[in-house]
Amino acid sequence: MGPVLIVGGGDAGIAAALRIHEIDPHRAVTVLVADDYPSWSICGLPYFLSGETPDWHDLAHHKTFPGIDVLCGHRAESIDTAARQVTVATPGGGHVSLAYDALILATGSSPVMPDIPGKDLAGVCALHTMGDALQVDRLLRRDPAPRTATIVGSGYIGVEMAEALTYRGLRVTAISRSDPAFPTVDPPFGEALGTELRRNGVELLLGANVEAIEPGEAPHGLVVRASGGVSVATELVLIAVGVRPNAALAKSAGVQLGARGAVQVSRTMQTSVPGVWAAGDCAETWHHLLQRNVHIALGTVSHKQGRSAAESVLGRERPFAGTVGTQVVKVFDRIIARTGLLQREARDNGFDVRTTDLEVSDRNTYYPGATPMRMRVLGDRTTGRLLGAQILGHSEAEVAKRIDIFAMALHHGMSVAALADMDLSYAPPVASPWDPVQAAALAWQHQHAD
Amino acid sequence: MGPVLIVGGGDAGIAAALRIHEIDPHRAVTVLVADDYPSWSICGLPYFLSGETPDWHDLAHHKTFPGIDVLCGHRAESIDTAARQVTVATPGGGHVSLAYDALILATGSSPVMPDIPGKDLAGVCALHTMGDALQVDRLLRRDPAPRTATIVGSGYIGVEMAEALTYRGLRVTAISRSDPAFPTVDPPFGEALGTELRRNGVELLLGANVEAIEPGEAPHGLVVRASGGVSVATELVLIAVGVRPNAALAKSAGVQLGARGAVQVSRTMQTSVPGVWAAGDCAETWHHLLQRNVHIALGTVSHKQGRSAAESVLGRERPFAGTVGTQVVKVFDRIIARTGLLQREARDNGFDVRTTDLEVSDRNTYYPGATPMRMRVLGDRTTGRLLGAQILGHSEAEVAKRIDIFAMALHHGMSVAALADMDLSYAPPVASPWDPVQAAALAWQHQHAD
Fold first, then answer.
1. Cα–chain-centroid distance for residue B334?
2. How far is A395 from chain B (nearest CA, A)?
3. What would you report as the CA-atom Rg of chain A, rounded to the nearest whole angstrom?
4. Which of A44, A304, A404 is opposite residue B421, by nearest beta carbon?
5. Any CB–CB contact under 8 A between B288 and chain A?
6. DSSP string covering A130-193, please?
7. What stretches of A5-66 show up as alpha helix (H) in DSSP?
8. What distances in angstroms separate CA A130 from CA A43, A158, A166, one per listed residue?
9. Does A408 contact B398 at a Cβ distance shorter than 8 Å?
10. Which residue of A423, A424, A435 to mutate against B (max B Cβ within 10 Å)?
11. Residues of A catalogued as catalytic
């Protein structure tokens, strides 16, 4: 078997390389890494910038790659899929041609930069790579040190960076086009998250579009102009309004694109071109509940897709099981998590969605440290099937792994009622005899199915 | 429809009563409670005795029972199943006969008291009811206050009480017949739990049988004599070596008994006698993995069985889904949890069990507060099927709800490999891109199935 060439050193590319080497240590594996940060925890960038992870080198998932040829600073420029060769720009400015037997495209995604005047001013940045984070860190270390920052966007990165820069001592304003903020949860949860941000000193502008960024007071001042005549004086602008798949290389090689311009893939991560696989942010993601491909850029998906692609390259079919929409974020001392479909998504996809909200203690109320947890369960009234769940609770309330109980139920197409029958763990310090997950399921059942 | 009579005011009995009333508010429901503590959190007794829950009234799951006739101090003495009548001893010393259309036996369990000399001495007690807890509390409040306690048994109650009495300021010795302690987990986890107990000042005597309890130094001294010539001077002896089902009433009424002398029940909690159901500690428990009835006395099971019995009484079949063996305990700042089969259980039941141990961080190692978690995964090498899991970790490591992810997988008969494919939540403060649950599953797969 000939060499495996992997384009991209992020989660998907490295997961694929490690799995190939794990199964077949004799197979030649080369990974092209465009920058100098292979297998870096991009999700950790906010914690480097907050100061909680002071040494950015700690963000490396792996520091060495025994048996794998990792080429940093190498950028794939074109693919000849007939000859199975990739032309690569090398760090020295030259070009080499690398032959492959199997090619895995793991080219990732790039931040969307809205086309507004002033987006290229110094002090305006995005946060997507370790290089970006070092750039933001340099901006934060200017003299005099900036005391204010403005974040455009209220998604995961926006919310995490609002926390991070507040921890770092800056006064933070977040401008969100959506109202409430954080549109990846249902509006009441977005409102609750907004309340948490404000309670911790973040200024929130909701339902506002950024129209321009202009130079402000010397030495580092900027002014962000938003809709409704609002303007915000600031020293740093972080734009975090989403990402788009890096699919230009694939497209130029004749590889078919799919959902939202991501590389079209089968469940075993094969593209439309023989010998070419794709995985991670650049590729489509199978949605287990919607039963179709979507585009979701998440580390958890990238790792699993990389591994699935590796198995497929080696002739072992391990189809990617798909996403069910699980995500979690910490914001100050709260965790907010979701899985499955939002109310709107469920309705748009033809489900007879019914929702139940419940406030419930994370553990027996008599046990010290018990905190209230806000839970939402979505189910289909016609079939009784669980469609999704959302939880907001204290950071010690096991919110994240409680959402995973719902995620497991979604993978198995369980009814809401059946979820209450599961043998979940209980002791007074950690839960109630009916876990909050089950209490919410029972409440849904009584409201919609009794 | 005639009245529903429920014998027993513990978790199962009250859960059944509440569910019947919830579905059919016009149905007459009477609950006979032998003591004065209906719907009390028996699992909370250690936290009352530790001082963490100072007011024992807070241990009531429910304080009122609107629409339900709860008769405290009423003890059922015999059942005429042909006439559908129960003879009841009333608090005043008289007897009444109560007619039923449907009868639910929820008579609970009683602590096993080993037949050793001295077990009836003042200062020797068990802990199974609120009354027991108040008695232990009185013993702890004697003057002079006891400074030492000895616990016989190293199961859940034994371990929780070792913690509780240590928190209360006593020097605690625990005598365990099993070596290592805590035989409800595999030996390496029992050893680790023993290390935690000792690290927190508990004296552990392992592999020791208690042979006698004798009076010791005045005023409250006792001496516990154990095998190997060991004797322990102490002021309080708590015996916690397990429970047995309270099935005498059922037996005398001609109701068939089953596993370990518990009342034999169908999946819908029906006994061998028409019109009679049973639920909770007095009844058998369906084991989903072993596909047979066993006897397990657990609050989580009792609540579910009580609810299932209620549905069945009302003609709505909601079979009890069964246990998969999930249990959790906190001991000082550690949580230890298990689900599924132990190694020995799996072997004894004919599985081709293989085990993988992994030490893994509960969250990304670079995130503050990350702690190591010890995980064990058991799977069947022939079929690849998950058989069980055990976790020991810090109390903030979401151990309890991580074991529930395994429990969900067990309910669905998943393979170990498939568990790694699940869409579980990740953000650096709460997990890793491969959740520790998945990291352990991947390690098992690589060790036993690649």
1. 18
2. 9
3. 23
4. A304
5. yes
6. HHHHHHHHHHHTSSSPP-EEEEE--SHHHHHHHHHHHHTT-EEEEEESSSSS-TTS-HHHHHHH
7. 11-23, 45-50
8. 10, 17, 20
9. no
10. A423
11. 43
In this model, does residue B1 exceed pLDDT 90?
no
Cβ neighbors of B433 (< 8 A, separation 6 or more) are A11, A43, A61, A299, A300, A302, A303, B426
Q: Which of A156, A371, A425, A437 to mutate to test the interface with B (most CBs of B within 10 A)?
A: A425
Q: Tokens 């246990």 correspond to what residue?
A: B323
* High-pLDDT (> 90) share of chain A, %: 98
Beta carbons of B332 and B326 less than 8 angstroms apart = no
| Alpha-carbon span A360 to A177, nearest angstrom | 31
Question: What is the distance of C-alpha B344 from the center of its chain?
Answer: 20
Which chain B positions have a beta carbon within 8 Å of A322's beta carbon? 423
Q: Give the C-alpha distances (Å, rounded to integers) separating B174 from A79, A398, B46, B209.
A: 69, 31, 15, 11
Cis peptide, bond prior to residue A428, ω within 30 of zero: no
CA distance B95 to chain A (A): 34
- Give the model's confidence band at B219: pLDDT under 50 very low, under 70 low, under 90 confident, else very high: confident
Position B223 pLDDT exceeds 80: yes
Decide: residue B108, CB within 10 A, 0-12 exposed, 13-18 middle, 19+ buried. Answer: buried
pLDDT value, residue A219: 86
Does B412 contact A at CB distance below 8 Å?
yes
Return the DSSP state at B262.
P
Tell me the pTM.
0.98
Please answer yes or no on whether B328 and A426 come within 8 Å at the CB atom.
yes
Using the Cβ of B63 and the Cβ atoms of chain A, whether some distance falls under 8 Å is answered with no
Distance CA(A319)–CA(A267), nearest Å, equals: 5
* Distance in angstroms (rounded) separating the CA atoms of residues B399 and B371: 11
Give per-residue pLDDT as tens, A61-101.
Answer: 999 999 999 999 999 999 999 999 999 999 999 999 999 99
pLDDT, mean of residues A249-258: 98
A43 inside 8 A of chain B by CB: yes
Q: CA-CA distance, A216 to A226, in Å (whole number)?
A: 15
Q: Which of B328, B419, B423 has the most A C-beta neighbours within 10 Å, making it the best mutation to test the interface with A?
A: B423
Torsion of CA A312, A313, A316, A318, to 10 degrees: -20
Are the C-beta atoms of residues A45 and A132 closer than 8 Å to each other? yes
180-239 in B: which are within 8 Å (CB) of A?
none
Residue with tokens 């232990």: B136
Chain B interface includes A1 (CB < 8 A): no
- What tokens does B319 get? 């079979």
Using an 8 Å CB-CB cutoff, list chain A residues near B160: 427
Q: Is the pLDDT of residue A381 over 80?
A: yes
Does A423 sit within 8 Å of B407, measured CB to CB? yes
Phi/psi of residue A243, each to 5°?
A: -135, 160
A298 chain-B contacts, CB cut-off 8 A = 426
Around Cβ A375, how many Cβ atoms within 10 Å?
Answer: 26
Non-local (6+) Cβ contacts of B364 within 8 A are: A41, A43, A44, B370, B428, B431, B432
B43 tagged catalytic: yes
Rounded-to-integer distance, Cα A387 and Cα A343, Å: 9
Cross-strand partners of B371: none
Does B421 contact A58 at a Cβ distance shorter than 8 Å? no
Indicate the residue type of A78.
Answer: S
Least Cα distance to A331 among A223, A436, A174 occurs for A174
Q: How many CB atoms lie within 10 A of CB B245?
A: 25
